[in-house]
Amino acid sequence: MIAVLALLLTASPQVSHRRVMTPDGVALAVYRYQRPGVTSAQPPVLLVPELGFSRAAWDFEGRGLARWLVERGFTVYVAELRGQGKAGPGLSLERLAGDLPIVLDALKLPLVDLVVQGWAGSVLLASNRGDARVRRVVALNTPLLAEPPSALAEAFLEDGGRFSTLASSPAGAEIFQQLFALWSLFPAGTDRAFLSTGTRDLSRPVAAQLLAWMRQGDLPLESGSVVSGLTAWSKPTLLLLGLADGFASPELCAVWRERSNGAVRLRTFSRVETKEDFSHLSMLLGTHAPAVVFPLIADFFAAEAP
């Protein structure tokens, strides 16, 4: 029996794909990762990428958090919402926020743990704070506040958030590095390859909306705003901050802990302690992420309820 279990845990996970249609006719993409014959006692984990990122943020060239969690017995789903990966077009952040309950309805799961990142994570959590199906959350550089962006981020968003333009020149690749991969350590070529194959252009409406959000300090939603929604957040949450993040400043994220009435725990990473401060991308695919970031996520989901 022990030999059989060992064989199952070393087998490659099965990855299945399905389309989920929204009421307004947009196709979302959902991927399921599971080892054959292995049933997890933990709730499934649903991973949702940042704006402009695809499933590759969680599973790039056979590595990343999705496969890492599956190797440790979790069942994992990755959802590409409108404007992400192979999903249909995204024309507003409010519409993207409404995609999360649609995916949960389609999966028919009574309980899930959720991992989100960045500005997409802020919108999803603030808009769906009352969804009883979400048990625990890990948020990676997910801002509560917003402020006028850096000149690089402003120029990128004013140009429509076109990752394809960044990928087409050495100067563009350097801008991507400054925004998403500053001071990062990657397996050779990861950042350049991810820019070319793991990103997708933001639509001009979404880029403009994100830029306005950064300039105005908050994003209005159908019920309240991002600031009011995250301030009212009550689910157990682990906020992981990469201190070298050039796209979602850790200062804008850290304040969430102070405003959450104890729901949000905070963990930052020091180069002295972990050999890397981590950026927006290296939190997911950096050389040290599997040893430093990923175990914190698994332990948080596996811990007994307080």
Structure write-up:
The protein has 306 residues and is of the alpha/beta class. The protein has a single domain (2-146, 219-302), classed as Rossmann fold, CATH 3.40.50. The protein contains 16 helices and eight strands. It has an eight-stranded mixed beta sheet, sandwiched between helices. The longest helix has 13 residues, at 204-216.
Question: What's the arrangement of secondary structure elements?
Answer:
Blueprint: H1 2-10, E1 14-21, E2 27-34, E3 45-47, H2 65-71, E4 76-80, H3 93-97, H4 99-107, E5 112-117, H5 118-127, E6 134-140, H6 151-158, H7 163-167, H8 170-180, H9 190-197, H10 204-216, H11 226-231, E7 237-241, H12 250-259, E8 264-268, H13 271-274, H14 282-285, H15 289-292, H16 294-302
Parallel strand pairs: 3-4, 3-5, 5-6, 6-7, 7-8
Antiparallel strand pairs: 1-2, 2-4
Task: Describe the structure concisely.
The chain is built from 16 helices and 8 strands. With 306 residues, the chain is α/β, with parallel strands linked by helices.
Bin the helical content.
Answer: 25-40%
CATH class: Alpha Beta
Instruction: Give the number of domains.
Output: 1
* Residue fraction in strands: 15-25%
Low-confidence stretches: 1-9
Going across the biggest sheet, name each strand in turn. Answer: 1-2-4-3-5-6-7-8
Global shape: globular
Cα distance spanning the termini: 34 Å
- The average pLDDT score comes to 94
